[in-house]
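Entry 14. Structure prediction run on the chain below.
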Amino acid sequence: MKFFHYLFPNFKLLISNFKNMLILLFTIFVLIMSAILHEYAHGWVAHKLGDDTAKNAGRLTLNPLAHLDMFGSVILPLLMVFSKVGFFLAWAKPVPYNPYNLRDPKYGDLKVAIGGPGTNFIIAVFFGIVSRLTPLSDIIKNNLVVNYFQGNHDFLLNQMNGSLAASIFVLSIIIVFINLLLMIFNLIPVPPLDGSKVLMTFLSADWKLRFHSMERYGIFIILFLLMFGLFSFIWPVLIFLFSLIVGV
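Output returned:
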């Protein structure tokens, strides 16, 4: 034991830090899987509307490896966690589709675009129901939610330790939060986000071309908005929907 302590003098600290990382690691896992389901839904809706581009590209699958973007799904999320920046960003590879193959030429793009955020909303509602049915008092649920938003992972892990109900509730609210965040973020009308495709459905041909021309700068516009307070506009909507779904 002395030899072990000599090799790892801060072993208890390492264990403590690892425990604190469990919530973050689960959050990353949920974010990646939810983004994959989001992209799969785009391909599934396109397939139902007559376009097999995603299927032929091997993307109409729930296999995560087919959708992972090495930078956007793995490297960037880990960098943002360890660097402790003020926001979090991740994505899966966009699922390709050909709008000219869609059986609904007028609203096909809209339906495909809504498929991703719609899937995130369905996931959020499902786990919101799970959280509502969890046999915990409203006081305990409120405490868990407050500590989750405050980033007090020690409190969450202590409450989850030995309590299946608390564990289910905490994991459920994380899934709800992440999926609502993905839904709202993707509905921002900035190319290439889904919100831009929703908006373009109702624009004239001239404005559609202008939006398409913005797509090459989209990631820079999004990063600019994130750095200059985009979440201050997203947050009230996110909290309202979260409270409505979870009931806390």
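Confidence is low (pLDDT under 50) at residues 1-8, 11-15.
Filed with the rest of this week's runs.
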